[in-house]
Amino acid sequence: MKLTKKERTKDWIKPPKAIMKPVGRAMAQFKMLRDGDRVMLGLSGGKDSLALLVILKHLQRHAPVKFELAACTIDPEIPGFDPSPLKEWVEQKIGVQYFYESEDLVALADKHMKGDSFCSFCSRQKRGKLYTTCRREGYNVLALAQHLDDLAESFIMSAFNAGQLRTMKAHYLNDDGDIRIIRPLVRVRENQTRDFATAAGLPVIPDNCPACYAKPQQRQEMKQLLLAQEQKNKHLYANLWTAMQPLIADDNHDGLANLDELTGLGNGK
What we know:
By secondary structure, the protein is an alpha/beta fold. Helices cover about 45% and strands about 10% of the residues.
C-alpha cells in the first residue's frame, strides 16, 4: 500500500479510502457512535490498534457525529514488551488524551489464575482495567481493534472446539450497562491494517504480546487454515462475513436498538 500525497502530509496521515469505506459502512450498519459520545480506544501498540487510532482521529475531524476521543494502554509489565514509547507519539503526533496503566499481570496470574490460559487471563484483566479507566475518566464507549480476520478465526475456533456458533460482536453493551463496546474494524482485513501501518510509519511495538508469541497458539493455527482455504476460494472472507451476520449483531441488550442512525459514514466519504 502506498499513500498518496494527500494521504500523507508533514503533520498528518489520512487513512486511505480502502480502509475508511469498510469502517464507515460498519459504523453505519451497527450504529456505533452518536453525538456526545466519549470514546476511549484500547491501544495495545500493535498495528491494528494504532491504525484504528488514526482512523478514529480522522473520523473525529470529518464525521457528522461529534465525539470525544482518548486512548488507553495497559502495560502488562512483561519482560521484552515496552509500550512506553507510545506516550510521546500519541500525545504529540495524534493529539488525544492518553492514559497509561501498568499492572504485573504475570504475578497476578500466578496468584489468581486457575485452569485457564495466560492469554485468556491477561485479556480479561486488560479489559477490566480498560472498563475501570473508562468509568474513572467518564468515557461511555470503549473501542477495540479486532478486524474481520479475528472474527473469522474466533468463529471457526468456537465451532471446532465448543460446537457453538459464536464470534465477537461489532457493538454491544457491557453486563453492567454503563459502557458500550465497539469494533469499527469488523469489515477490515488484517492485511489492510498491516499495510497501512507500514506505509504510514506507525510506531508499532514489536511482539505485541510476547507471552503469547513464545509458543504456537491455536489462533495462529486457525489463521493458517483460513489462509490456505482463501488461496482456493477468493470469496472465503466475504462468505464468512455473510454467515456471521446474526452473530456479529448484538442480541443481548435491547437498549442498543434505539441508538440514532449515523448518516454520511457509510458512503465512502
